[in-house]
Amino acid sequence: MPLFSRVLLLCFNSSALFLFALLKSHVTFADNKEQTLIIMGSAIETCTSLTPQFCNIDTPLGNEKGAVYLLTSHVIDDVQSHWPTADKSRLAPTVSSLKRLLTTHPSALSKQELLWAWRDIASEQLSQLSQAEFEYVVDMLEIAKPNGQSRVFNIDIEHSKQAQGWLTDSYKFIAASLKVKSQQPSLLVLTTGARDPYADANYYETVLSQTGVAIEWLPLTPSLVSALQEKQCDQLTTYRAQANVYNRERVYPTRIAQEQAACSQGVAHLTARIKASTGIMLVGTEFDNATEQRLTAALFDSRGNAYPWTDAIADAPVLITSGFSGNLLSGKQEQAGNSVTVKPISSLAALQGQQSVLGHGLGSVPFALLDTYFSEKNRSVGLATSLSASKQTDGLGIDEQTSLVVIKSAQGNVLTVLGERGVVHVKSKAKQQFQFDYWPSGAVIEIKNDAFLLSQRSIDNALPAIKMPPLPMQRFSNILMDAKLRSLTQAMCLSQDKTAVGQQDQFLVTLTASKNTQYHRLNSSSTGCAITQLNVNISTIQ
């Protein structure tokens, strides 16, 4: 049975509609060309007992706690003995505060309870700690809790701060994609980008259990990579400290044992395990320099050469990313031959001259540069700048709570959009000029002769246009802040307007429809209007 037929039978939600469209245009795949990419535009944020920060209630899920912290005289002595920075000026005040807390809070605390109690007695002292010192103290106070291996913690979708519908659609598509590859699929999860990859392993094993497939954590941690490089598996504790992670052998003994075993088994075994998996998920969050450095260092050596396992990850039959890790899938090459990925910067920052490209990418999406957290951070101009800087043509920006699916085949590549919002396609035309397309949830896009085309089936299934008054004749202020550019382009689409002008500081943003511009209302949401070939021009007020 052809691939799309098998996925269609397995995927029973609204995504089956676009799969039916794909089935009409693609019959079969050459086995060595098949790959499915599911690129999530933001991190997975679900309320669980491990992640109270993602819950909209104070004490979620009964009495079950995620991280647990306990003050004892022995632990305070350890904190004093292994201070992580050369500057000891904040050590004595920290120890004094911890001893005071010990007298008032002798029982186990959640992280929230610990920090509240600390702020109550020494708010200024706590705020003076460097980030490294703060993380060190919190790590050292944490105590062991139930083993996360094969342990699914409580999930509370109803009380999650973020909408979960996009994740439900994504999980069903992930499961369907994996099941067409294997009758007993397994998904390897890499928490490489996290400061504490061992804690994140528990969380992602929990939330990804909703896919209904076997989930395994792969301990491809920064410390493992360093130990493998230096052939010093006996120094993993030292490498964890260098990565600013402490006390994990007491808190997560099983995770640490997995990491130690992976080191002892060596590079060939690690690479073979990746190749044998049905799918890989490379976890990411919103961009920051530390996250980017951790991800890059786990995939490429200091000279930019890929590790043996890197190609295995890039070629996984099903490859899933969340947040910034999706940026790394592009890795399109400059004319000089260097791989580039997008450094996420705002549109205003791009116009002010900030660097907008990074080195090192996996190359799984060779036809476009990728960016995430897109419209909400107003990064269209930033992506256009990245294209110009790297002499590329096409870029794709994935909104928050949205997944872009790329199905690659010998016959070509087909894209579709799942979730709450949409995907922006930016096509570079000249300096500070680009073509803007917007593909809302449910859109199917075909790539023909290097052109990204909204499928005819998506157009045929569009909703009727609605009557809206034309936009007022004005300059829309702060157009490059928040999601205002998306809001204005959606308003143009719904009102069928041909032009609009926005302003940000000294910059004018002119949006102009041409004879090739098309508007199609694909769904009834506030971001449901598809836009093709809208021209954007940036100029400076003299």
- What's the count of strands? 22
Largest sheet, order of strands side by side? 5-4-6-7-1-13-14-17-18
Distance between the termini: 63 Å
Assembly level: single chain
Helix/strand-derived category reads: alpha/beta
Shape call: globular
Enumerate the spans where pLDDT stays under 50 for 5 or more consecutive residues. 1-32
Tell me the strand percentage band: 15-25%
Individual helix count: 18
Helix content: 25-40%
Main sheet specs: 9 strands, mixed
Radius of gyration in whole Å, from Cα?
A: 25 Å
**Mean pLDDT metric:** 89
Protein name: Cyanophycinase
Signal peptide: 1-30
InterPro entries: Class_I_gatase-like (IPR029062)
Keywords: Signal
Could you characterize the architecture of this molecule?
The structure is a single chain. With 542 residues, the protein is α/β, with parallel strands linked by helices. It has 18 helices and 22 strands. A hairpin with a 2-residue loop joins strand 13 and strand 14. The chain has helices at residues 3-10, 15-25, 73-81, 91-104, 111-127, 131-141, 165-179, 197-207, 222-230, 236-242, 248-251, 253-276, 289-299, 308-314, 347-351, 380-389, 456-460, 484-495, and strands at 35-40, 68-69, 142-143, 186-190, 214-217, 279-282, 318-322, 332-333, 339-342, 357-359, 369-371, 394-398, 402-409, 412-419, 422-430, 433-440, 444-448, 451-454, 475-477, 499-504, 507-521, 529-540. The radius of gyration is 25 Å and the shape is globular. 35% of the residues lie in helices and 23% in strands. Helix 1 (3-10) packs across helix 7, helix 3 (73-81) packs antiparallel against helix 6 and helix 4 packs antiparallel against helix 5. Residues 1-32 have low confidence and may be disordered. It has a nine-stranded mixed beta sheet. Strands 11-12-15-16-22-21-20-19 form an eight-stranded mixed beta sheet. A three-stranded antiparallel beta sheet has the order 8-9-10.
